[in-house]
Amino acid sequence: MNAVVNGIWPHLPILQVVIPLIGAVLVAFLRRAPLAFAITLVVSWILPFVAGAMLWQVLDSGPISYHLGGWEPPWGIEYRVDVLSGFVLVLVSVIGAVTAPYAWRSVAREIEADKQAWFYCMYLLCLTGLLGIAITGDAFNAFVFLEISSLSSYVLIALGRDRRALLAAYQYLIMGTIGATLYIIGVGLLYLLTGSLNMVDIASRLAPAWAESSSAILAAIAFITVGISLKLALFPLHAWLPNAYAYAPSWATAFLAATATKVAIYLLIRYYFSIFGLVVDMEALTVNDIIIGLSVAAMFIASLVAVFETNIKRMLAYSSVAQIGYITLGIGFANEAGLTGGLVHIVNHALMKAALFLAVGAIFFRVGTVRITDLAGIGRKMPITMACFTVAGFGLLGTPGTSGFISKWYLALGALDNGWWPMVLLIVASSLIAVVYVGRFLEVAWLREPSSALADARDPPWSMLLPIIVLSAATIYFGIFTEWTVGIAGAVATALIGGLQ
Amino acid sequence: MSTLTNLFDHYDYVITIFLMMAGIYIVVARGNLVKKLVGLSIFQTSVYLLYLEPAKIIGGTAPILDPAFTVYSNPLPHVLILTAIVVGVATLALGLALVVRINEAYGTIEEEEILEKDRQA
User: Fold this and answer.
1) A224: distance to nearest CA of chain B, Å?
2) How much is the pLDDT for A481?
3) With a CB-CB cutoff of 8 Å, which residues 173-212 of chain A face chain B?
4) pLDDT at A308
5) Around Cβ B65, how many Cβ atoms within 10 Å?
6) What CATH number corresponds to the domain at position B30?
């Protein structure tokens, strides 16, 4: 037993990526839905242990560097796990593990029988890509993983029952590919300037390159910023997101909303704080001001659009754009408290958005519609589901006692640290808009008499209910006990800000 | 004058940037879903050129250590672009597959007509 552990231990970084990849290949060969689900479940439940073991190791004894094929970096590809990437790996794999049991019934209801196995295959590939982006220390390798996750998520979205899912997937494919291509243009420029693709190596060679040719580095910053912003749906580059989330199968929406944009945000933080920020004064470039401006616009405009949506999934999708605004706001503040708030909100938003989308998926599972007007009184018919929706919804508003409050508290502290007290008012004011759109559905769900169309509605089976309960319970847990979220995010923020120019 | 000679000396980059802009223009300006994908492909291909131009040395060989050769091309960008080509092919294939499905579902591949049908539905 000990020999096995000792044998596996040094290879955890590659296992994190290879396990879901092998799972995907197995599923593609077996092509039977029950087997595919079993493999997905096993893979999803192994991954958090791998990620957790690495995060524990990193917190205990510093970053892990894994050399693929035994080639020393910067020549070979390096997988590098530090606290930030360990944090993101744990988040993605835990979300995958918690939502996995939900898949069986939801997928059986929403996906045609002969396509179910392929759906699981695409999910595992998407998981491979997302984990790969977070773990790799190589700029070009990150592009390859970005495309693996994107291509598979286009398929996940296109498998939605509604024909609009096809157009949503097509539009996402166009925008996503432009984003990824802009990103490799940026990486190409960095390679021309520094002769390296290893992120740590680029960072160390950037200073002499900056002295020699600053305009090329500025171009690289611009290309990488816009490219990644398309992927993370920073306002106004979010046009692909609402339809993609609204028409994708429920489980895919919950998983993508909780993880895909978050991993893109991770990549942006990596470039800003571990590469460019070390050499370039981002403050003087007004990059931070632009990010803050767009974030505030997202917080208000996307929230306002959400107020007028009649489809709950689209409403939550616009709310995602707004919530991503809070995360990028923290990046724009570029101080310890602000970045802590942004990082904590990555986790908190992932947990509550997954809970919300899963709850909506459960409603669709029972009722077959997600239009607010058709769902009057649904709370009395599906009390546990709607109770969880309510808890996670309060998290979205930032009510004290939920995790959303913790994120906004640190963001407000970040604003005050920069002396921008009006920003605190903006954060509070935009949360009030969230009160309107969440409250509007809660009012319809709880306070109206159920219509006859909902006569047969009841809470979904336990395999679907349990993930929703766990995620919404986490919304409360992380609102009270912040040791894991704020503790780790704070340590990351201190390390990142400490290295800045 | 110096700007002009500068442009002429770097004519390969001028072509690359022209292709890049042309590709992205097609994506934005055309309503036909297949033409959009063609534009996207041109855009991606221009990036292959961006990587390869600085890497290829005229008269250079693959970096095999041999006293007969002294000029080498950089192999790394070539390998990277092989990967990027595979990604591009996969993207194009998936995009075309989606267009086929869209055509089956809507009976058209013109963006305006599709949106019009969605509004009516």
Assistant:
1) 14
2) 87
3) 173-174, 177-178, 181, 184-185, 188, 191-192, 197
4) 92
5) 6
6) 1.10.287.3510
Contacts of B80 in chain A (CB under 8 A): 140, 197
Tell me A449's DSSP state: P
DSSP element (H, E) containing A79: strand A78-81
Residue A122 lies in a domain: no
Distance CA A135, CA A86 (A): 8
Treating both helix axes as pointing N-terminal to C-terminal, what angle do A250-269 and A214-232 enclose, rounded to 10 degrees?
Answer: 160
Q: Which residue of B has its CA nearest to A192?
A: B54
Token digits of residue B46 = 């221009």
Q: How many domains does chain B have?
A: 1
> Bridge partners of B32?
B110
**Which residues neighbour A195 within 8 Å (Cβ) at sequence distance 6 or greater?**
A205
Question: According to the model, what pLDDT value does residue B13 have?
Answer: 87
Average pLDDT over residues A270-299: 87
What percentage of residues in chain B have a pLDDT greater than 70?
99
- Phi, psi dihedral angles at A84 (to 5 degrees): -60, -50
Domain presence at residue A201: no
In chain B, residues with a C-beta closer than 8 Å to the C-beta of A140 are: 80, 83
At residue A459, the pLDDT reads 84
Unique residue bearing structure tokens 């995602």: A320
Number of domains observed in the structure of chain A = 1
Of B76, B91, B98, the CB nearest to A166: B98
3-state secondary structure B21-83: HHHHHHHHHCCEHHHHHHHHHHHHHHHHHHHHHHHCCCCCECCCCCCCCCCECCHHHHHHHHH
Establish if A53 belongs to a structural domain.
Answer: no
Q: Which ipTM value was assigned to this complex?
A: 0.93
Contact status of A224 with chain B (Cβ, < 8 Å): no
Interface touch B87/A140, C-beta < 8 Å: no
CB contact under 8 A, B91 and A174: no
Nearest chain A residue to B23, by CA: A178
Q: Which of A153, A161, A184, A187 is the mutation pick for testing B, counting most B CBs within 10 A?
A: A184
The domain in which residue A414 lies consists of: 302-501
User: Tens digit of pLDDT for each residue in A217-239?
Assistant: 899 999 999 999 999 999 889 98
Distance from CA of A202 to the nearest CA of B (A): 16
Shortest distance between the Cα of B117 and any Cα of chain A, in A, equals 10
Q: Is A17 domain-assigned?
A: no
The range of the structural domain enclosing residue B57 comes to 2-120
Closest CA in chain B for residue A167: B102
DSSP A419: T
> Is B98's CB within 8 Å of A174's CB?
no
- What is the Cβ-side half-sphere exposure of residue A7, based on CA atoms within 13 angstroms? 4
DSSP-assigned beta bridge partners for residue B109: none
A118-169 tens-digit pLDDT: 999 999 999 999 999 999 999 999 999 999 999 999 999 999 888 899 999 9
Residue A400 DSSP symbol: T
> A177, B36: Cβ pair inside 8 Å?
no
pLDDT of residue B11: 86
Dihedral, A327, A333, A335, A339 alpha carbons, nearest 10: 0
